[in-house]
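Data availability (excerpt). The following record was deposited with the supplementary files.
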Amino acid sequence: MLGMAALSSQAENARTQAIKRVLLGVLLLNLAVALAKFIYGTISHSAAMQADGIHSIFDSAGNVVGLIGISLAMRPADRDHPYGHFKLETFASLIIGLMLIFAAYQVGSSAVVSLVQGSYHTEVTPISFIVMVGTLIVNVGVTTYERRMGNRLKSDILKADAAHTLSDALVSIGVIVGLILVACGIEMADDIMALVVMVAILLTAFDIFKNSFATLADGARIPEEEVRELVESIDGVREAHEVRTRGLENEIYLDLHVLVDPNMTVQASHQLVDHIESVISDAYPEVQDILIHVEPDDEAHREFPHHDKVKEAIR
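Predicted structure:
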């Protein structure tokens, strides 16, 4: 029978391969979409379509970054990295966010130049709408699938890349609206919509940064009250405190302190800790590592628990 560590390793390898397959499939679709928009945008002199194509190329680059990031993140723990390399996945998400900012700059700068110079050469044809609507359908489908897989696999990189692809869909909607207005005689609409889309891309980048910083700054992943109530419902635990969680959504590290009967033997407390770990793992499968500090339920620990000492030190 395989041990728990072996089973966990197999599950993580399966998850990694699933994420890679999703990213590879999305990469191929993004390349096809990017070429269609950029080539026809160049032919029709549409700044917005060309910018949209450039943005889709950044989507493809983001997929490549994601593939590299997830491969590095799944390397096993070693002497220099005893907690593993899982945060490299988050760093890859940050790179995607930076690429979004650069894409926003590309979209906005070309539009500003056209508006300042007053040079509008956009040609709107039925093919323009066919290309844009077709690529929009592909983007919406990719975004929906990638976000669903990101939630299922609890992958920061897939969620970030789904947000990136969604921004491409927003760009496409803006371009379509701009083309309609240009066809109605409002020539500057193509560039104005490019600026509106630039703002949407920047907001998407902000959301990626916010989620990534939550991981890098060791933001709490599970509400403390939930864990405390769960642990205190276990026979033998008189109180739980100092509950802390951090890590990725799929790889959470948890530690806490528990008060027990001062007369409890070492063997009994060890068995209790094993039981607590089992209960937590069943309730939160995403928790990969649990550290429990056992304390006697006496006056000293009741009156001056560790968290109170920390608060006093801060004061």
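Summary of structural features: Residues 4-216 form a domain with the Alpha-lytic protease prodomain-like fold (CATH 1.20.1510.10).
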